[in-house]
Description:
By secondary structure, this protein is of the alpha/beta class. Helix content is 53%, strand content 17%. The protein is built from 22 helices and 21 strands. Strands 10-11-14-15-16-17-18-19 form an 8-stranded mixed β-barrel, surrounded by 4 helices. It starts with 7 loop residues before the first helix and ends with a strand.
Amino acid sequence: MPDKYNIIAELGFGGFAFLVLFLMLYTKPRKTKIYFINFLGITASIITTALHLFLIYMSSDVEIYSRLLFDTICILFLLFYIILVSLIFNYIMLLSPSLSMSLKKILTMEAVYSSIYIIVMYILLYNGKLYKTTSSGIEFTTFFYSYIIIGILSASYCLWTTIHNQKHLAKTIVMCVYIFVPVDIILLVLQLFMPYTIFISITYVLPLTIFYTMFHSNPFNEVTGCQNEHSFETRFIDNMRIHRKFTIIYVRLAGTVTDGHYHDKKQAEFIAAAKCQKIEAIKHGIHIYSLPDNAYAVFTNSRNMVSLAGRIRTILEEPIEYNGIILEIHYKMATFNNNPYITDITKLFSFIKYLNGKFSQDIENQCIICEENDYTDFFYLYKIECMLADIRNKMDLNDERVICYTQPIYSIEQGTFRTAEALMRLNMDGETIYPDKFISIAEHNGCIHALTCIMLNKVCHTIKKLEGKYDFDAITVNCSTIEMSDNNLHNELLGIIKDNHIECSKVRFELTESAMINDHDAVTSNMEILHNAGIRFYLDDFGTGYSNLERIITLPFMTIKFDKSILYKALNDEDMNEIVSSMVNIFKKKGLVLLVEGVENDEHNEYSIQHGFDYIQGYKYARPVPIAELEEYFEVSF
Ligand code: C2E
Ligand code: CA
Ligand code: CA
């Protein structure tokens, strides 16, 4: 290497770029835009640096100098340098959603300028104007200056567009540009004055590495400028630890008025970026974090949540122009602040889930300002959720928190109670919780199967106790729709029955029509195996869902339970009355047993008897009672 040049920095940064490239190969995710651009950039940096070093090496000795090779490398180097510079500086500009719209125009313009530049440089090279051959080597400072100038111009253009587009760019991007682009310009100018100490590779390896660490996977999204979910968690935890007051505005963007949904990912990104930037600009200290499902959390330490929510609403409701079309977006938002209930990150995310459940499907735009009762309602459900998860994890078939009630069912023909339905309640710190509060939570959290197993075990205990002493047919257990698609369900249920040493015919299962919609094969196979073992099935809540009579008839049901709503409607509506009468006839012809629920008074009772129902369940005959009291309803057997 020539003594004239100090290439330590160039070698160092070339090596560093190698290291970054190596690290990138071990990074995930790899399919993001930022990864692709950085990978391209770092690879181009290594090639550019290598070409540059080769030029310096060749220029040191006239003996190894070959004109054709030197000129070719010069052109190649320029080509890579131009690619690098446009990659870095264009990328920053294209992060602005409004500029990215004119992507094609910008790229064509640049391709034209670059081609002109390369052609001019080639002509100059050809005419020997860019470097001189001397006895001590090649003197190519003119060539050197010509591309540093290009670097300075590109960086300045980038700075200029950022200043002009500041309003349309994420704060983080603007900050990055304001710090690193001037540093790059200073370095390039220094390089201009120190042509023999080569460090130009810093000006491209450094910005690429910074982009990579800032925007690849953590923590900022380069388009919206939002930080990710983990940063949101950290911010929340930090604020909680130092007891700092805060307001969080949860915003979920839904769609455009044209069809209720975003047309494409790009449009969704454009809208999100534009709205986020406006919200961030409301005042200092507002930070936005992106959450799953096109949702965002606006976090601020100001406590004036009503006025802030109002301003955010105004921003969200402003129509936005995209590709010449005016779009109106739909949103759901909820504002909340510190409270004694949301004290950790698990509760925070549960609360967000709770808010999503509170949003109405019928209203397009909705803004909830949370009050004390929202926090207490949430906390009550949260406690149930935790308890259900604990019940599932412990999986104790005798868990005392699961309470089994039973409602005796009356046989019209025999004039006595012959069966009973097991109904679940939960005991939470001494308070009884009813199914309407916990069944759907248990179904969504994957706890329902544990509850069914516990209920079945308790029912089996009672059957064992009553068997032989009392005259009854069976006790029915409710089985959730979700469980029926589990291929292994029959094994577990039969296992519990067998462990209790009772006859399978004493246990029956109730399924709702929605179970039939699910995985058909699994439902049929579970039902058939259990049916062959002697277990009978009831179709629950008939008349509340979409009835597929054909399927009902092909599945091994013994009894159809008419829902109370059908009974009440039939009493007031002649058409409904006719439907019920013909349904009863069809089912009877098929040999099915008919049961009616919700019989509360004499009118209900008479109707049920006259219409040929076989069994009656309702408050008129018996209310649900703790399973220990069930024996009082059955006759003693002799
Ligand atoms: P379901 O299976 O339709 O149970 C009958 C519900 O109707 C019971 O409410 C019962 O108390 C109520 N009921 C009985 N007679 C009358 C009456 O004459 N009038 C009126 N208005 N209501 C009456 P409960 O116990 O609150 O249970 C509600 C629902 O929760 C059940 O509806 C069932 O879908 C579900 N559920 C209860 N226990 C379990 C269980 O162990 N497992 C599963 N998966 N679900 C259960
Ligand atoms: Ca039932
Ligand atoms: Ca029912």
